[in-house]
Automatic annotation (TrEMBL):
The protein, known as: Cryptochrome DASH
Cryptochrome/DNA photolyase FAD-binding domain boundaries: 252-425
GO biological process: photoreactive repair
GO molecular function: damaged DNA binding; deoxyribodipyrimidine photo-lyase activity; FAD binding
Binding site for FAD: 184, 197-201, 370-372
Note on cofactor: Binds 1 FAD per subunit.
Compositional bias segments (type: Basic residues): 489-507
Residue stretches of biased makeup (Pro residues): 104-114
Alphabetic keyword roster: Chromophore, FAD, Flavoprotein
Gene source species: Lasiodiplodia theobromae
Length: 531
C-alpha cells in the first residue's frame, strides 16, 4: 500500500521538472522492527530505486539504550528473560547516550498554494479541527460494537492530553515539579486520575519525546542542575540523586527497549498464537495451549459462534466482572486504561476465558492512544503465558485485584454507571465486613435480589449471566489467582516480583482450567480458587 501511494506521488512529482508546486527528490523513513513495517520499508526502497530517487532509512532514536551500546552484536544473543537483559546493562542511570542537539532551525513549511487540489470526494482540511473531523469520518462511532459504552456522567479521562513535542515536554516538567515522578514507584498501580503514572507512553510511542530525553531531564533533576525550571528546584528530591521513583521509570524505559528487541529477534512469532514460544509448543504438542478461536473450533472444542458472542460482551465491557468492565469501557471511551487494568484484562481473556490472546491484542491496537507494536503484542504474550515470562501461566484473579487496587470501588463506579448506587459506604475502612460490601460491586451477580431490583439490574444479562463466576472468599488471602505484586502489563511495560500460586491448589486449579477451556463456564462453576 505504501509503495502504491509513493508510486502515484512520484508519477506526479518525481520527474526532473516536477510541477510548479515542487518536486520529490528523496524518500526518507524511520526504521521500524515490525514485519509489516519492514515490508513497507522494502516497498518504499524499491519504488525509490525504480524511479531514480534517493531513499534513506534513518535510525530510530526513540529508545533508551542505543543499539550500538548493547552487550551483544547478534540479536540471537538477546536474553529470553528481561532480568538477565537488565542486569547486563546496570547501572541504568549511566547507560544512555547524551541527547542529540536541538536543531537551530527547520526548513519552512511548504506554501499553501503548493498543495494540489484533491479529487472528489477528498478535501484539503484548512484547520486542525477540520483535519480531525476528516480523519474520524470513515470510522463508525460504535466501532462495530453492538452495545457500545456510553460516557458516564461525571467521569473524567485519565489521559486528557494533546499530542506533540510541546505537550510532551510540558507533561514531563509537570511530573517532576509536582513530585509525581518521585512518587511513581508507589503510585503506578493506580486506576483513577492523571498522575498515578507518568502517562508518557503515547508521546514515546510516536517519538514526540524520546526515552533519552526523559532520562536527561531526570538526571538534571537528580543532579540539581541550576539551568532547570524553577518549579523543579522546589520539587521533592531535587538534587538528591536517583530515587525509587526515577529508578522505576528507567526500569520501564528499558522494558520498552526490550520488547522492541524481542520483536527484532522473533519476527513473525510476535503474532503467532503460541507466541515467542511457538518452537517449544511445536516440539511439545502435549503441552500446547488449547485456545478458543473466532473463526473455527480450537483445541478447546469450542463453538466459534459462542466465542464471538463472548468477545462481543468482552469488548463492550459487559462481562459481569467489575474491574474488567470498568477498564473496557474506559478504553473504549478514552483510548486509555491503566497498566494494572491492562494486566487483568489480558489475563481474563486469555486465562479465564481461554480465548486466543491475539483477539485482545488486536482490540487494544485499535483502541489505544499509546499503542506501540512491540509493547502491545509482546505484553499480551507475556500475560497470556506464551511470551518471555519465566513464570508461564500466571493468572490474575480480578476480584482479588479489585480488592487490592480499587479498595473503595471508586474506579468501577466511575466507569460502570449502573453500579454507582451499590451501597459500599464504609468499605474503605477495611475488615471483613468492608470487603464483603464490595463483592456485589466487583461481581454484580453477588448482589442480593432486592438490591438488584432497587438498582434496576434484575434481568440484566451481564448481571444475571456473567461470562464467568469467580469465587472469592472474603478474608482468604492464600492461594490461586495472582493478587499482589505482578507488575508486567499489557500495552506498556511493568515488571517486578509476584507472589505466585498456592501449590496445594495446583491440581484443583488445573481441573477448573480444563473446564473453562471447553467453553463459557456455566453459572456456579468456578474459574480459579478463591484468593
Amino acid at each position: 500500500m505504501v509503495g502504491d501511494v509513493l508510486q502515484d506521488l512520484l508519477a506526479k512529482y518525481g520527474s526532473s521538472e516536477g510541477t510548479p508546486s515542487g518536486r520529490i527528490s528523496a524518500i526518507w523513513m524511520t526504521a521500524e522492527e515490525g514485519v509489516e513495517e519492514k515490508r513497507e520499508q522494502r516497498d518504499a526502497r524499491n519504488v525509490a530505486e525504480a524511479n531514480g530517487v534517493e531513499f534513506k532509512l534513518w535510525r530510530d532514536e526513540k529508545f533508551f539504550i542505543d543499539d550500538r551500546d548493547l552487550p551483544f552484536t547478534d540479536i540471537k544473543d538477546l536474553a529470553d528473560v528481561y532480568t538477565t537483559f537488565r542486569k547486563s546493562l546496570e547501572p541504568l542511570r549511566s547507560r544512555p547516550r547524551a541527547t542529540l542537539p536541538v536543531p537551530s532551525s527547520l526548513p519552512p513549511l511548504p506554501p499553501a498554494e503548493s498543495i494540489p487540489p484533491q479529487a472528489d470526494p477528498f478535501t484539503s482540511p484548512e484547520s486542525l479541527s477540520s483535519m480531525i473531523d476528516s480523519l474520524h469520518k470513515p470510522l463508525r462511532p460504535s466501532m462495530d460494537v453492538e452495545e457500545p459504552p456510553k460516557w458516564p456522567s461525571g467521569a473524567k479521562s485519565g489521559h486528557p492530553f494533546s499530542g506533540g513535542e510541546f505537550s510532551a515536554r510540558k507533561r514531563l516538567s509537570h511530573l517532576i515539579s509536582s513530585g509525581a515522578m518521585a512518587d511513581y514507584k508507589d503510585t503506578r498501580n493506580g486506576l483513577l486520575g492523571e498522575d498515578y503514572s507518568t502517562k508518557l507512553s503515547a508521546w514515546l510511542a510516536l517519538g514526540c519525546v524520546t526515552a533519552r530525553q526523559v532520562h536527561a531531564s531526570l538526571v538534571a533533576y537528580e543532579d540539581g542542575n541550576s539551568d532547570v525550571p524553577d518549579a523543579w528546584k522546589a520539587a521533592p528530591g531535587f538534587g538528591k540523586g536517583e530515587n525509587p521513583g526515577t529508578a522505576a521509570v528507567r526500569f520501564e524505559l528499558l522494558w520498552r527497549d526490550y520488547m522492541r528487541l524481542c520483536t527484532r529477534k522473533f519476527g513473525p512469532r510476535l503474532f503467532h498464537v503460541d507466541g515467542f514460544r511457538s518452537d517449544e509448543a511445536s516440539e511439545n504438542s502435549d503441552g500446547k495451549r488449547k485456545w478458543r478461536f473466532l473463526d473455527r473450533s480450537g483445541g478447546a472444542g469450542d463453538d466459534p459462534a459462542k466465542t464471538r458472542q463472548v468477545v462481543e460482551r468482552f469488548r463492550s465491557g459487559r462481562t459481569g466482572i467489575g474491574l474488567i468492565d470498568a477498564s473496557q469501557r474506559e478504553l473504549f471511551l478514552t483510548g486509555y486504561t491503566s497498566n494494572r487494568a491492562r494486566q487483568n484484562v489480558a489475563s481474563f481473556l486469555s486465562s479465564h476465558l481461554g480465548i486466543d490472546w491475539r483477539v485482545g491484542a488486536e482490540w487494544y491496537e485499535c483502541m489505544l492512544t499509546d499503542y506501540d507494536l512491540s509493547n502491545n503484542w509482546g505484553n499480551w504474550q507475556y500475560v497470556a503465558g506464551v511470551g518471555n515470562d519465566p513464570r508461564q501461566g500466571r493468572k490474575f484473579n480480578p476480584v482479588k485485584q479489585a480488592l487490592d487496587y480499587d479498595k473503595g470501588g471508586e474506579y468501577i463506579k466511575t466507569w460502570v454507571e449502573e453500579l454507582r448506587d451499590v451501597d459500599v459506604d464504609g468499605a474503605q475502612d477495611g475488615g471483613r465486613k468492608g470487603e464483603e460490601m464490595l463483592m456485589g460491586l466487583f461481581q454484580a451477580w453477588r448482589l442480593p435480589e432486592k438490591e438488584k431490583e432497587r438498582l434496576s439490574l434484575k434481568g440484566v444479562e451481564w448481571v444475571e449471566k456473567p461470562l464467568i463466576r469467580i469465587p472469592f472468599a472474603v478474608g482468604n488471602k492464600a492461594g490461586g489467582g495472582f493478587g499482589g505484586d505482578n507488575r508486567r502489563p499489557s500495552g506498556r511495560g511493568r515488571g517486578y516480583r509476584g507472589r505466585g500460586r498456592g501449590g496445594g491448589r495446583a491440581k484443583r486449579l488445573g481441573e477448573v482450567d480444563r473446564a473453562a477451556k471447553q467453553g463459557l463456564l456455566e453459572e456456579g462453576e468456578s474459574s480459579v480458587p478463591a484468593s
